[in-house]
Amino acid sequence: MSKTISVIGSGLGGLSAAIRLAVSGHDVTVYEKNSAAGGKARSISHSGFRFDTGPSLLTMPFVIEELFRFAGEDPAEYHTIKKLENLCRYFYPDGTILNAWPDLKRFGAEIESKTTDSKDSLYRYLDYCKTIYDLTADIFLFGDLYSASTYTNSKALKTLFKLPKIDSMRTMNEANRSFFKDERIIQLFNRYATYNGSDPYQCPATLNIISHVEYSIGGYYLEGGMFSLTKALYKLAEKKGVKFRFNAPVNTIVTEGREVTGIQTSEGFVKSDIVISNADVYSTYGKLLGDTKTRAAKKYSKLEPSSSALVFYMGVEVDSKTLEAHNILFSGDYKKEFEELFSKKILPSDPTIYIYISSKFAPSDAPKGMENWFVMINAPNSSGRTGKDHLSIDTTRNVILEKIKAVTGYDIAGKIRYESVMTPGDIEEQTGSWKGSIYGISSNNRKAAFLRQANKSRHYKGLYFAGGSAHPGGGIPLVILSGKLAAELVAKQK
Q1: Per-residue pLDDT for 494 more than 70?
Q2: Fewer CB in 10 Å around end: N or C, the chain?
């Protein structure tokens, strides 16, 4: 039976759910407070420079391809995905430059020639990461974590019998130290905790699944930048009959007792059989539902938000031949950096710097002879002392520029032709992410996978969740999967 469905937010999770539900014959409308679709995956353009505002690396492209196939469409007609020739170039304080080649033999040779670790250590490590993926993916990524059926199939039972192999009792750092002896390589693989806004010295080693995804499945980019994915999904959604209301913030999810009846927008009440919230879970409970008393609302409010980011968008008059599209300039004391982020809740004194230059493979993203630098550091969420502390931000900016000069040799301070900044407070304001957290809750807890919001509410009939703060988590493939899981649960509702 066809249902009237309102989707709150047009992030990738909301778009994913909307497409699937429209294809299944439902009447779907997406309500977005901003003027265009995208959520965190948006784009800004100024002075001839174009920047992706959010994700910069694509993994698990088969998740996107499956969505298009479900809709009866050829993904190649909507976007072009290409595999990266170099996943990332790493710069260390001691002058070491390490290339993370997707060709594992080449990467292994790189490690062996430049560090005290061996290629065999790399291969053993990635086999270990693959084991975690094989045991957990069907449950923690592709399955509805909160349904009994998820745990009663043969793959799930295999996982339950091999629980020690998912390595949830060690931290990521502890596990990585058991495979490698060179601090530079340990730091490289510890970095993957930041892919879901967590601390490698606290989060479970189970998250080493991320290394498998990037090195064994691969890293990719989209022609036209990551925003081209947003445009492709928006185009697909419209073709399948999804309606959009932009500049239409949802003020309230309307309920009768414990049943959702619709939404209240600036345009009035909209009766809905189903509401899917692609908004942050905390905002959904606290602002849209006005709910602070149910068990779910109380639980979520007590959880630690993930880290945030401080991002500088810099249009630079430079031709950086020694930089790749993706670059990491590591800090000298990684443990101290995460203590500052999560314990002290301050901007790191020596931050690890991520530089993404999409004009390396998309020259139209910058004027001739120039490059578009997306310069990001990990930052505490806006409960820390970053928000509107511009003095702190200005000081950090100078630290970043000096470090770029010292490590790469590029003195860009006098060559910046365009610049804007996004703080954790800005992220919260623009995307609704609780305290500016990029990935919802952190995974600095062995039970973190079981603490995320389920895709179907247990407290409100007719309410579902998609997006980075819901199961299975943040990052492009996972938020798209969250939309899939939400849509599949709607299909099961009687």
Answers
A1: no
A2: C
